[in-house]
Amino acid sequence: MLTGRRVRRALKRRRIAPCSHCVRRHLDCNPTEFIVQERWSHRPATAAADEEPGRPVTAAATQEPQEQASQSFRVPESTYEVFQRAFSVDQPSTSSSLHSIVASDDILTEETGGLLKVDQKGIGVWMDIFDRSPTYENEVVRYSLSSPLLMHAVCALAAKQVSLIQNKFLWEPVSSRFYGQSLNLLIKELTKQSADRQVLLAVTILLGSYELLAQPGIDYQRHLYGAHTLITSHNLGEEGNSFETASFWIYARQGVALALVNERPTLTPPGKWPVPPANATPVEDGFGNKIVWLLAKVIEARFAATSEQWSVEEREVFESLVLEIDSSWADLPPHVRGIPMKHVICEDEGLTSIWFCVPSASAASLYYHMAKILAYECLLEKPRVSSSPAAQTDELMGLIRFHSHAIASICLFTGLADSALVVAVNPIFYAAKYIPSLGLKTRLWGILDHIHTHLGFYTRDRQTQLQRELRK
């Protein structure tokens, strides 16, 4: 084994920049391996799963030697930088059909195969919460067999999740390697005239999700910039096929989640979103996408910089939005809204055990109740001048607490699937914000901790905010 000094001398003779990771640990440095510098701050894993996917295979065993980059080439640090580089010069003209599926022995290895299974059991299911197809759980994995770019993006995201819930020391280098390779391949793909826009969008969604898991705290627009660029430049929201539509609604949910955390309107205004089709099937998935769209409109009204008092026209527009939310909810079959069980649990807390037919129904219900809370917050800030402020406040706070208890009932007594738990982060925060019971606040905080520890989905900021509420 080479010492750090010998590594530096050997690399210097070969005119390749030394890898500080290997030098610091006195390890052999493989100059053909694409290594991404550590750029994100990570949380330590706090729980171990019962099983791990196949242990990482070294790059030398799975990769062909890569061409040495010129000394002037700088590795991009994120999808934001990749798209800024690519679209500042020229926008590629891309095809609208997916390539045929031909399995490749070059990209399907023990390591990548194990990570594909991780994706299909975890994040792929989360992404398909309102997509019964399911596109990301199955279709994306299928297409990755013929696309090194898509394969590397799927593996990067899967390895990142594993690093957060199992062995960070073992899996963090793997996730960084696949992520770096994905960025490099994405640059090349964006310059091709024959680039497949569907694959580009799916890859961008996957890599943006990786960045959200790795470091959700930086400017939220950077995580969404690549997908936003593709969607707006190709009008994918309205003209895309089912594969692209599935990607759009994942982008939409991510945009809503980050807008809530940052208390800003969504990056793409909901007025420019495709209108969810009426009578979509299954009904719970159709309502899920529609309530996300309506929620984005409420967020825009809640956090947009406007005057302290609404004009008559502005209030009428907002009240019609609230009416559309209510009518959409009322038109749903009972099994989609959730059926209360005959017995009441924790009667003193006002919570009820609720049954849902599928995870998408519970997730859509969480979005609905949160949309109502945000709508009432808007009305609290901009009350009607003609009415008594005190009476309005009491009435609206009563309604907010009703929907907060509905969220608590869904989260505490429904046995939510992991895909719905990921959706639950922001609804839980808003519910705990308004529920007066200290005991319920603490229990909801515990769910956020479970989501972070066992799913690798970042919730620490929301937990910190709730801790501040507990200290008041």
What profile does the largest beta sheet have?
2 strands, antiparallel
Structural class: mainly alpha
- How much helix is in the residues? 55-70%
Low-confidence stretches: 1-27, 29-51, 58-72, 90-103
- Number of individual domains: 2
Number of helices: 22
Report the span from N to C terminus. 58 Å
Instruction: Give the oligomeric state.
Output: single chain
Q: What value does the Rg take, in angstroms?
A: 24 Å
Question: What's the count of strands?
Answer: 2
Give the overall pLDDT as a whole number: 80
The coarse overall form would be globular
- The succession of helices and strands, N to C, reads HHHHHHHHHHHHHHHHEEHHHHHH
Strand residue percentage: under 5%
User: What spatial order of strands do you see in the largest sheet?
Assistant: 1-2
Subcellular location: Nucleus
Keywords: Nucleus
GO cellular component, one term: nucleus
InterPro entries: Fun_TF (IPR021858)
Model description:
- The protein is mostly helical.
- It has two domains: 47-60 and 74-274, no CATH class; 287-472, Alpha Horseshoe (Serine Threonine Protein Phosphatase 5, Tetratricopeptide repeat).
- The protein has 22 helices and two strands.
- Strands 1-2 form a two-stranded antiparallel ribbon.
- Helix 8 (148-165) runs antiparallel to helix 9.
- The protein is globular, with a radius of gyration of 24 Å.
- Residues 1-27, 29-51, 58-72 and 90-103 have low confidence and may be disordered.
